[in-house]
Prior knowledge:
Blueprint: E1 3-6, E2 9-11, E3 17-23, E4 33-38, E5 45-50, E6 57-59, E7 67-72, E8 77-82, E9 91-97, E10 102-103, E11 107-111
Parallel strand pairs: 2-11
Antiparallel strand pairs: 1-3, 3-8, 4-5, 4-9, 5-6, 7-8, 9-10, 9-11
Amino acid sequence: VHVVESGGGLVQPGGSLRLSCVASGSAFSMFVMSWYRQAPGKAREHIATISSDESDTDYADSVKGRFTISRDNGKNTVYLQMNNLKFEDTAMYYCSVTNLGLWGQGTQVTVSS
């Protein structure tokens, strides 16, 4: 299983970005998927998790109400919609196949004016 994130970039405070993560393999619909982030000098932080059938989601308090995790099992893709971005959201964002402990290489999000 390969995990590839995309969609990061430079955005102004208050702006939005949508990250995508594609996980290869025919068992994607059975995977619990998560997003994490890591800012320079800080530990990796859990952001959001979504169950295999999208029935259950979980968010860190720091992003609750601003970020939304979703998935399209037909496309082997999980998304992270990020709205009202703040300076402190600047980090490398990683996608994880939670069941398997697999990670992608990350995509950089920078919030700057």
